[in-house]
Amino acid sequence: MRKEKLILVVDDDPDLVEAVSIKLKSENFRVAKAYDGIQAWDRIKEERPDVIILDVMMPNKNGYQVCDEIKKDPEYKDIAVILLTAVGDAVTSTSYTHWDGKTALADEFIPKPIDLDNLMEIVRDYAG
User: Fold this and answer.
1) Would you tell me which of 41, 56, 95, 115 could form a disulfide with 85, CB atoms 3.0–4.6 Å apart?
2) What residues does each domain of the chain span?
3) What's the whole-number mean pLDDT along residues 36-56?
4) Three-class SS of residue 69?
5) pLDDT digits (tens, 9 = 90+) for 3-40
6) Are 127 and 29 in contact (CB under 8 A)?
7) Is 75 exposed, middle or buried (0-12, 13-18, 19+ CB in 10 A)?
8) What is the rounded average pLDDT of the residues 115-124?
9) Cα–Cα distance, 17 to 10 (Å, whole number)
10) Whole-number percent of the chain with pLDDT over 70
11) For position 3, what pLDDT does the model report?
12) CA trace torsion 13, 14, 17, 22 (10° rounding)
């Protein structure tokens, strides 16, 4: 029997983390949760997820920074990173830029609000 794949969900919105977690569990994925970029790194080192669903706009360390660090770390660079971004709508009122998005090394980008069915399709593709 193959081991269930572990998906790390990182967002500073607890309701979104919970909604995505419930959907993932309903599809037989194991779920780890984090609510900012620093917690995300703690979980990555503790549990080494197969896929990371990562929000861009978060306190302490944003999703672009975390994604960049993951993809430049030889030990973790092969973990698929799916960035969740509402930045497109808020780019004029935030410090985040389209350049950050274009230079991020994420495997996939999903706009917010999230289409959960679309997200699950992408997660299944990357989780193998």
Assistant:
1) 56
2) 6-127
3) 97
4) helix
5) 799 999 999 999 999 999 999 999 999 999 999 999 99
6) yes
7) exposed
8) 96
9) 7
10) 84
11) 74
12) -150
Residue-wise DSSP of the chain = -PPPPEEEEE-S-HHHHHHHHHHHHHTT-EEEEESSHHHHHHHHHHH--SEEEEESS-SSS-HHHHHHHHHH-TTTTTSEEEEEE-HHHHGGGSS--HHHHHH---SEEEESSP-HHHHHHHHHHHH-
The answer to whether the CB of 66 falls within 8 A of the CB of 96 is no
pLDDT of residue 90: 45
Does the domain at 6-127 match CATH 3.40.50.2300? Answer given as yes
pTM greater than the 0.85 cutoff: yes
What single letter denotes the amino acid at residue 55?
Answer: D
* Tokens describing residue 125: 């593709």
Burial class of 95 by CB neighbour count within 10 A (0 to 12, 13 to 18, 19+): exposed
| Token pair 């092969």: residue | 78
